Amino acid sequence: MVYILNSTSVQVDPLGFHYIQLKKGDRLSLECNSYLSTSIILPGNQYTKSLHYDKYVDVEDTGAYACKCPRSFLCAEPKVYVYVHDENGTGFLPLTSQYEPIQMPFIPDTNIDIPCRPTIHSTKQDMELLVDNATIPECNTEFDPRKGFRVPVSGIEVFNYTCRHKHKSGVSQTILVEIFDRSQQQGVLHRAKGSRDAFFFIRVRDGDGLVISCNSKLFATYVTFPNETMHISSMLVIRHVQITDAGVYKCSCSMFICGEPRIRVIVLVVKDEGFLPAERYIWQQPSTAPELIIPCRTRENTTKWDVELKIENIKLPAAELNYDPRIGFQFPFPHLGTYNFTCTWQNTYQQNFVVTVEDEKISNKKRRAIRPDSIGTVYAQFEAETIKMAGRTERALPTTEMPGKDYAILSEIEITNINQAQFNEVPLDDETARAAWFRLIIFAVVLTLIAAIIVIVISKYAICVCQILRKRKRLHDANDASIELMQIREERTA
After folding, report:
1. Which CATH code of 3.40.190.10, 3.20.20.80, 2.60.40.10, 3.20.20.70 fits the domain covering 2-85?
2. N or C terminus: which one in the chain shows less Cβ crowding within 10 Å?
């Protein structure tokens, strides 16, 4: 329970969220009374070091406050939203960067959030949203005073959104939003700070391969699809990703103490690239495949003199190679080992392959073991994709974020883009590890208590049995004594 020590009464908005309204300079006092709470969550994903919080607030202190609980199954995390307005009354929470546009990737048939958050509790009827000075109908928008407006994606360009209060003249906030195409711009994935929806992000291209492996050292895990259906195995292999495969995948566990690490897969629709999509990892045994095939298939009719092939950045002579634009390069390659091949066309397009040539006696298990292993670590494996070059070879590496404070990871999630060959290791943070240990300790304490209760019950039962046996023995001895006494009396009488 969050105790609000202010004299201001707590109210409930139509969405069922508790909130209070303060003015700049007012004193905010909060207290968490749950013995399972560890701290108080502040706006901006910050934490206190105690269960008490006292401050004279400013407009920037507007946001949600909650009691931090290590795991929701142990205790709830009650929240309260605090609105703080200045002397002028109604306003908006200032943005982190006032003049730089907010960049968002273009994903068809989705909505985007316009983060105009008022400093006084408002409803959808109190606010209106304009884009390029044209009012957007209310039927096309959703409004949450804690998050802002949510509107459909209109296209790939820069939009000028304006949030305005209907009943307060001159109260407005302008936000620039840039919607870009990921196939042309490799931007950084942005994530709103303070969000509890913490995910890992990975970007794959349409037609690429993807492997999601849930590897828990303690419990059996399985992959859950974006539509909440379950995969029967702990490893999901998608050989050719489609746009319909985009969504949030997670590792689920039948035990309640398991975490559920999640990953949001964004599929990029790539058009008009130089080469057709192909699997970047090539395994071959000289005895089964006398000739090596590098599937550099161009989208136009080309010859081996148009496409350049390199091995470890060393150009191979075109005269000694066989090339078919429908198949790729084909030539004898009896050497054992792992090699990097690069295809370049028109000095504009590039496609990389990792070729492993092994002896047929090597087991498939050893052949597939291409990743390191570490408990509590997330691996994302990348290799340069087919990209356009601007005068030089660029490596377009997708970004992987690990905010991950809300998901304690006992089971390990491994995200492998099988089209890429560079390891980026992202370790867990200290708080997630502490939360995992805390859950294990709670689980051990619960087991200890159950064992102690069982021992106590058995002990009481044993004591009761012993007492009954003693009583029976005493009665038996008393009966024997009475019989002897009667015999003695009879003898004396006789």
Report:
1. 2.60.40.10
2. C
